[in-house]
Amino acid sequence: MHSTTSGKPLDVIALLDAAPSNRFTASVVVLCALVALLDGYDTLAISYAAPVIAAEWSMPKEAFGPIFAATFLGAAAGAALFGMLADRYGRRPTIILATAMFGVFALLTPLSRDLASLLVIRGLTGIGLGGALANVIALVAEYAPARSRATLVSSMYAAFPLGGVFGGPLSAYLIQQHGWQAVFVVGGAAPLVLVFFLVLALPESVRYLVVRAAPAVRVVALLRRAAPHASVSSGDRFVVAEGSAARLPLTAVFSGAYLRPTALLCLASFITQMVIAFVITWMPMLLKDAGLPLGRAIVTAATFSLGGIVGSLLLARIIDTTHSYRPLVAMYVASAFVIALIGFCTFSAPALFAVVGLAGIAIVGSQVNLSAYSTTVYPTQIRTTGVGWITGVGRVGAIAGALVGTVFLSAGFALHAQYVIAGVPALLAALAVAFARPRGQYSQMVGIQRNTSPASATRPYGNDT
Questions:
Q1: Which helix (H) or strand (E) holds 238?
Q2: Which of 74, 191, 196, 232 gives a 20 to 30 Å CA spacing to 460?
Q3: Tell me, what DSSP letter sits at residue 10?
Q4: pLDDT at residue 96, rounded to an integer
Q5: Angle 129-182-47 (CA atoms, 0-180°, nearest 5)?
Q6: Is 443 helix (H, G, I), strand (E, B) or coil?
């Protein structure tokens, strides 16, 4: 868990936590946010294009449930697979590979000519989407100081719903001017351009390098950029002072002290993404069927993503200010009620925009901060495996959410009934987060320090044990 050089031991986590805000850390957040932005665009692209594809191919709208699900199924596999690859080979190469993968297969989507080929291509696209998102969350968490970890991780992750915000109006324009294929040409070309910049500028996690006993010169080079005021040299012995973990990350994540939080956070992630997937993937089609023009239905769905950005940043700021993740529980409860209102508001465009935006604030804000929360559970050796599995199980929930729409339509449920039923599971997610650890250990999970020593004051929460 340390480099092989001799000399004074220096805790890399303490150095990063003590570092002031700087351009290097900001660049890591920005590069990862760009990955998340394009990830969000490509995840929702099929939802925006689906009504047009269904009409062009003379397909019933219910048939798109498996298509939506294929994207999320691939993302579930990608989050778990690329999470384990990152713990073995590093965050940087894994992020680059996953980004290139979803770019290539998004670019190939217009070659689809039937349901089967579209399903396969969307599944392969999803593998890259899931792998990229899980790893940018981990990389930002490993560079972010504890005092602002929730804010930085959530700010980066907020770019994911931002992809939907830009993607809605852009997709509406592209479909009108160039056809549905243009949505995926843009969605594929942009990530491949970004890969070039990632190769040039994305750093490896310095914590990962220390844990993997990389040469001290590599660690020093990164620390001088991430913590420029720290006095470090290649003669120092670098350590990561956090909880130890088994040599097999997957075994560690699902055993011992990590079993309970892993299980409950996986449950919360499953429910959250199930609800989000139903709301966001089916909304353009459901609202169009309710009488809204396609363009307005797409823009309304984008409002959900816009609310998600506001909710992500607002909740993260509250968490950093209160040094507690308890507000996350309250936000889940609120999301259950506001989602239930969506189906009752189609009578008024302003009311619909407002309630959809509030739903995004509540449930997407909860999802983003749940991901930030999960990074505090695991030490560096197993962090991307743990976060990857939580994200991956969430993607399985998204598969369920995509298929739920097919079930609702086949059963003939009214629009308001669909959204009422969709909101209820958020209450269970609130309970899962609340009981992820016994009450006496809750503050330890978020790292709140009960003593008032100077040492504890430097790391008010967000420790890695």
A1: strand 237-239
A2: 232
A3: E
A4: 97
A5: 50
A6: helix
Helix (H) or strand (E) holding 381: none
At residue 394, what is the residue type? G
Reported as a single tens digit per residue, the pLDDT across 101-141 is: 999 999 999 999 888 999 999 999 999 998 998 899 889 98
Contacts of 227 (CB under 8 A, 6+ apart): 15, 16, 18, 19
Which of 141, 132, 107, 125 lies closest to 29, judged by CA? 141
The per-residue pLDDT for range 19-29, each reduced to its tens digit, is 888 899 999 99
In contact, 41 and 183? CB cutoff 8 Å:
no
Sequence-distant (6+) residues with CB within 8 A of 255 are 246
Kindly list the distances between the CA atom of residue 117 and the CA atoms of 73, 120, 124, in Å, as whole numbers in the listed order.
Answer: 15, 5, 11
Q: How many residues does the chain have?
A: 465
Token pair for residue 290?
């309710």
Does residue 132 contact residue 267 with C-beta atoms inside 8 Å? no
Q: Report in angstroms the alpha-carbon separations of 284 from 51, 171, 244, 292.
A: 8, 12, 47, 9
In order of 26, 402, 459, 464, the CA distances from 145 in angstroms are 12, 37, 8, 11
- Cα-to-chain-centroid distance, residue 170: 22
CA distance 83 to 94: 8
Contact criterion met (CB below 8 Å) for 130 and 397: no
> What is the Cα Rg of the chain in Å?
22
Tell me if 276 sits within 8 A of 371, measured CB to CB. Answer: no
Return the DSSP state at 414.
Answer: -
Distance, CA of 359 to CA of 203 (rounded, Å): 36
pLDDT tens for 401-431 read 888 888 888 888 888 889 999 999 999 999 9
* Distance from the Cα of residue 95 to its chain's centroid: 13
| Distance, CA of 71 to chain centre | 15
**Torsion-angle region of residue 256: left (phi > 0), alpha (psi -120 to 50) or beta?**
left
CA 424/CA 338 separation, integer angstroms: 10
pTM > 0.85: yes or no: no
- Separation between Cα atoms, residue 90 and residue 93, nearest integer Å: 6
Q: Which of 273, 317, 70 is nearest to 161 (CA)?
A: 273
Taking a C-beta distance cutoff of 8 angstroms, is the pair 300, 352 a contact?
yes
Q: What is the DSSP string of 47-86?
A: HHHHHHHHHHHT--GGGHHHHHHHHHHHHHHHHHHHHHHH
The crossing angle, in degrees rounded to 10, of helices 259-289 and 415-423 is 170
CB atoms under 10 Å from CB of 351, counted, come to 14
